Amino acid sequence: MTLGTLYLKLKKHWRAWLKMFYLKTFEGYYLTSPQNINEEIIISFTTIPSRISSTEFMLRSILAGRHLPKVFLMNVDIKTSTLLKDNRFLNVLVERGLLEVNIVDDLKSYKKLVYSMKKYPNHNIVICDDDVLYPKNWFKSFSDYQMGNRDLKKIVCHRGHNVKLNQNGQLESYKTWDFDVTTPSKITTMLFPTGTGGVYYPKNSLPPVAFNSRLFTKFAPHADDIWFWLSAISNNCHFGLLKNKVNYRDMYEIPDSQTFNLWSTNVNENKNDIQLRKSIKYFFESNLINESNIYYSLLFPTYNKIKDDSFYHIS
After folding, report:
1. Residue 6 lies in a domain
2. Residue 169 falls inside a structural domain
3. Does the model's pTM come out above 0.85?
4. Cβ-based neighbours of 9, under 8 Å, separated by 6 or more
5. I need a surface site. Which of 77, 108, 170, 311 has the fewest CB within 10 A?
6. Residue range 123-128: mean pLDDT, rounded
């Protein structure tokens, strides 16, 4: 590593390293201090072998806030699960009942939510990423929202994108959308929740189609956020930003955790656009989004444009 590369790395990650040092040093405090538990929420995530150490620090960052869910649910394939025994901290959390390891089939990024909603159908789910250090009040904001909106069918997040339409009312390319909207007043057409900042799914927000692996592996194999978004739309679910949200810039990427970045691949190679349009066509032609749906008029111009395109043929 050259001095220049080292300098850039330090400049980008020094805050994350400092926070990781703090979390490691004060482990005893936040593992033994009283916790505020919300029994109605599960925090759900997945990881891969190369990110097990990142997962440890992600969990440390949430635990430091002392506002916790009923349980942290880690959905992992069997290969990853066999490696967890080497991480002392994760094993301590399992022993104390704070972390539950759920061994599942490898459905890639879909593991984060699909299996949790199946296992805990009567709970609300907050998903998070395994490569982020979250601020101490991150989960508290979700918990406060849930306690004040128990019967509201609304998916909320700390960070989302503005859906962008062209002059014909059709969806623009995903990479041209207004990314990282953080103020409710800035939402113009509709919000597209993004998982990095955390997303809250109330227990009645997603219909059965959201969990159909035969369908999502066919139409959106690498875009779970797109598939869940359209599933929620088909269920007439609303979307919004948390009012007492945390600053997205205070969510630090854990250094060296991004050896593979699915988001960059999807966006830079326009794979999100392909998966989005294939999925829209499926939802319309299966009558899951029809004229009775509150979002029908928003998405119909896009469907009308692609419905005769052989590239998006549904067999």
Report:
1. no
2. yes
3. yes
4. 1, 255
5. 311
6. 97
